[in-house]
Structure formats: structure tokens, C-alpha cells
Amino acid sequence: MRVLLVAMLVFLPLGCLAAEIAGHIELSAEGKPLRAEEAQDAIVYFRPRVPPAVAPAAEISVMGTRRKQFVPRVLAITVGSQVRFPNEDPILHNAFSTSKDNAFDVGLYSQGNGEIVTFSHVGYVRVYCNVHHSMMGHILVLDTPYFTHPDANGNFRLPDVPAAQGDLVVWHERATPWHTVIDAAAADKPIAVPLELSQRRIPAHMNKFGKPYGRSSEGGY
């Protein structure tokens, strides 16, 4: 079971009661149910109507490369947080993104601790490797500290959220984000979340120069 991600220690404002939001994600593709463990790559977050104070994570998050894959493939962080891109492979990689406001390029790098990138804007960041077309990672930069991943059974739990109205969002790389307005104080039973995975796992994309990957784009590895 994947350990729930916590960006930071959350302190609720004085006089604000805490609540818990729980639910279950059901995945499908072309009308057919998928294995529950695939929901672990989803990100569930709650954004209260009154915006909470958000600070960068105290520790640097990590998105490494291992066996020509980004690990973890999906990462959620609070705005202003930092991510390190180490390389565990005996080959070269080049993590980059052209995502609006959070574009970066750490350059070609071999085994080692890798470069650190600060993500200063809220949004979705697609991470690619300029050497390997098949590598793709996802970073969701959030303006709320209340987020988690579902477990291997598709269940999720958000404890210690403000007992107030807000937006509950379930994001998955291959689905249209699921959204509902919820009163956390009245969330007395698990919420059922249906997600249809209709998007490709590795969509067509260009390299960091805006050109197609060539036949040798795997760099000979």
C-alpha cells in the first residue's frame, strides 16, 4: 500500500474545526472496469472556499530516473516547493518541461544526485526526457496542503481538513479531472468517484527543441 503523501504539517486556524473526507475511486476504460491499484497514480485534493495558508514543503521532493522511467511517475507538491531529479541509471537522461510558468531544463546528466528545481507557480507540469521519448512524469503544483494518493484498493482519506465548504478534485494523468463542491463538515460517508481513463499514457510530444524525436531518440540505450 502506498504511503499517503503529506506536503507539510498543517495547522488549522483558531476556531476552525477539523473534518475528514474519505472516498473510493472506480476506474474504467471504454466502459470496462480497470484494476483498483491503477488508482494509486491519482491525486485527490481539497481546496477550502477560504484559501488556506500554504508554505513550501520543508524537505526537497524527489523524482528520479530508474530503468528509463521517472520514479515516482506522479508527484504532488505545494507551490514554492523544490524537486530534485537524481539519476539511478548507468545512462544519460535530460529531464525537462515546457509547461507554462513552470518550464525547466536540467540538461544532460549522468548518475548522481541531480539538479534541484523550484516550482513557483500553481499548475500541472509534464516532465519529459530529451533522450528517451517514452519517459514521462507528472508534477501537480497545488495551492492547498490537503492532498493524498489513493491506496491499492482505490480508497482515499483526507484527515484534518477544515470543516467547511470547498472543492474536492480527483486528478489522474489519463482522465478529465473529477470535481465536486463539498461541505467537509457534512461528509459522513465515503464519496464514490468514477473516472474514465480515455487519454494515452504517453501522448505524442516534441523534444525540448520543439522538434520530433528521431529514430535514435533512445540515445542508443
Q: With helices defined by DSSP (H or I, 4 residues minimum), what is the helix count?
A: 0
Estimate percent helicity: under 10%
Any low-confidence stretches, pLDDT <50, length ≥5? 1-15
Sheet of most strands: 5 strands, mixed
Shape: globular
Question: What is the count of β-strands?
Answer: 18
Strand order of the largest sheet: 7-13-12-9-10
Spell out the helices and strands N to C: EEEEEEEEEEEEEEEEEE
Polypeptide structure, described:
The chain is mainly β and 221 residues long. It has strands at 18-29, 32-33, 43-48, 61-62, 64-65, 70-71, 74-78, 82-87, 95-97, 104-105, 112-118, 123-129, 136-142, 147-148, 155-162, 165-171, 178-183, 191-196. The strands form five sheets. It has a five-stranded mixed beta sheet with strand order 7-13-12-9-10, with no helix packed on it. It is globular, with a radius of gyration of 18 Å. The two termini are 32 Å apart. The model is unreliable at 1-15 (pLDDT under 50).
Short description:
The chain has strands spanning 18-29, 32-33, 43-48, 61-62, 64-65, 70-71, 74-78, 82-87, 95-97, 104-105, 112-118, 123-129, 136-142, 147-148, 155-162, 165-171, 178-183, 191-196. It is mostly beta strands and 221 residues long.
Itemize the secondary structure elements and their pairings.
Elements: E1 18-29, E2 32-33, E3 43-48, E4 61-62, E5 64-65, E6 70-71, E7 74-78, E8 82-87, E9 95-97, E10 104-105, E11 112-118, E12 123-129, E13 136-142, E14 147-148, E15 155-162, E16 165-171, E17 178-183, E18 191-196
Parallel strand pairs: 1-18, 4-8, 7-13
Antiparallel strand pairs: 1-2, 1-15, 3-14, 3-16, 5-6, 8-11, 9-10, 9-12, 12-13, 16-17
